Amino acid sequence: MDVCDKVVVITGAARGIGQEFARSLAAAGAHIVAADINDCSATLGLVEAQGAKAIGVTLDVRDAISAVGMATAATRAFGHIDALINNAALYGALRGGRFDAIAEADWDAAMAVNVKGFGTAAKRQCRRCVAQGAAASSTSPRSPRPTACPSLFITRRPKRP
User: Fold this and answer.
1) Which of 8, 15, 99, 113 lies deepest, with the highest CB count within 10 Å?
2) What does the pLDDT look like over 82-124, one tens digit per residue?
């Protein structure tokens, strides 16, 4: 897949696999929107070392207003959004070992980020991308529908002549 000059939003981009997504996609020529509740300065340094354009955006995936702000910042910086990688998640913070030993507050936080956060970020991106003429693809066994947008990745439709 060619990502050269594509604008890719990556949630959870401050460290770990989100940071590696950013670095790898930047090396392939993508423009990166590194979004995280934590500081993305290190990620931006890695992206810029690849010679790519990038912005860092503070994003709390649990908050719809934060997701709208992130999409607005990305569009302001690059004019559009081509792809969303919903990477933000809480796993390492879960304590207790066995499922039944996880504290309710920790469980609630994980559900807010890992489940609701995915939908919050995707819903905001999909509305913006569909308005821009984007198509959605998904790992869902069902056919992706841009209006429903259960997407993990969003790509721009080619312009018709």
Assistant:
1) 8
2) 888 888 877 666 666 677 777 778 777 777 776 666 666 666 5
Of the pLDDT bands very low, low, confident and very high (cuts 50, 70, 90), residue 131 is low
CATH homologous superfamily for 7-156? Answer: NAD(P)-binding Rossmann-like Domain (3.40.50.720)
Amino acid at 47: V
Angstrom CA distances, 103 to 3, 155, 157, stand at 41, 39, 45
CB 74 within 8 A of CB 7: yes
Question: Amino acid identity of 66?
Answer: S
| 8: nearest Cα among 80, 57, 60 | 80
Cα angle for residues 132, 30, 124 (degrees, 5° grid): 35
CA nearest neighbour of 156 among 11, 30, 22 = 30
User: What is the spatial distance between Cα 56 and Cα 9, in angstroms, rounded to a whole number?
Assistant: 10
